[in-house]
Design brief:
The protein has two domains: 62 residues, no CATH class; 138 residues, tt1808, chain A (Alpha-Beta Complex). Helices cover 26% and strands 32% of the residues. It contains five helices and 14 strands. The chain is globular, with a radius of gyration of 18 Å.
């Protein structure tokens, strides 16, 4: 499947292995807990292993992804949550300013049984009707390696994917069975991607949103 590629983030991915443990007739999985903001590659595993890890990690503030036998686990950090929250708020602000209908899906789990499963950092659909899945998936990549985000979202035919990486916002639209990089959004025409890139790391968040609101009118 042809997909676009991105330069690797500066922080590399850590590799670990999930170890099955039995206690009182129950089977659980254990692995080294990633530090905040770190992603670890748990390694090869089947769909049932993914579902077990997903249940385990949900209670511990971690996120799990599965793609064609590969499993990775990410621990949430403030820099990650700050960036994804700010980019998502820019989308909401733009839609509100221009009276565009949208639905915020947040980190709603997307799954194709046996193939892929996991959550985006943020996601939206546009238009008044509630669709079967989001039109836009937003990702913040602070570590390199692991599951390819474009190949991952191609499994559900995501129309558009934004990836924040190394201080840049990269946008991709689905074309055929792969993604093409673009400089303008297809699902949200008119939104200034360069302005989002400029303001995404501005603190406090309120200052960034006010500036975005002023400049996107």
């Amino acid at each position: 499947m042809p997909v676009a590629t991105l330069p690797a983030p500066k922080t590399s991915l850590r590799r670990a292995r999930a170890v099955p443990r039995r206690s009182g007739g129950h089977v659980s999985l254990s692995f080294p807990r990633p530090s905040p903001g770190q992603t670890i590659m748990v390694g090869l595993g089947d769909w049932d292993t993914y579902l077990m890890l997903d249940r385990l990690c949900e209670k511990q503030g971690m996120r799990v992804r599965f793609h064609r036998g590969i499993i990775e686990v990410m621990s949430i950090s403030f820099p990650h949550e700050s960036l994804k929250g700010q980019i998502g708020q820019f989308v909401r602000t733009y839609c509100n300013e221009h009276e565009l209908d949208y639905n915020a899906w947040g980190s709603t789990t997307q799954r194709v049984e046996g193939v892929m499963g996991g959550e985006p950092d943020d996601s939206f659909s546009f238009g008044a009707d509630l669709k079967k899945q989001p039109d836009l998936f937003i990702e913040v990549a602070l570590s390199s390696g692991g599951i390819d985000k474009l190949e991952f979202w191609c499994e559900v035919k995501a129309q558009e994917v934004w990836i924040w990486q190394n201080g840049r916002l990269h946008a991709f639209v689905l074309k055929g069975d792969g993604y093409q990089p673009v400089t303008k959004s297809k699902v949200l025409p008119g939104i200034d991607l360069k302005l989002i890139e400029e303001l995404a790391e501005v603190k406090p968040h309120s200052k960034a949103i006010r500036e975005f609101q002023k400049r996107c009118r």
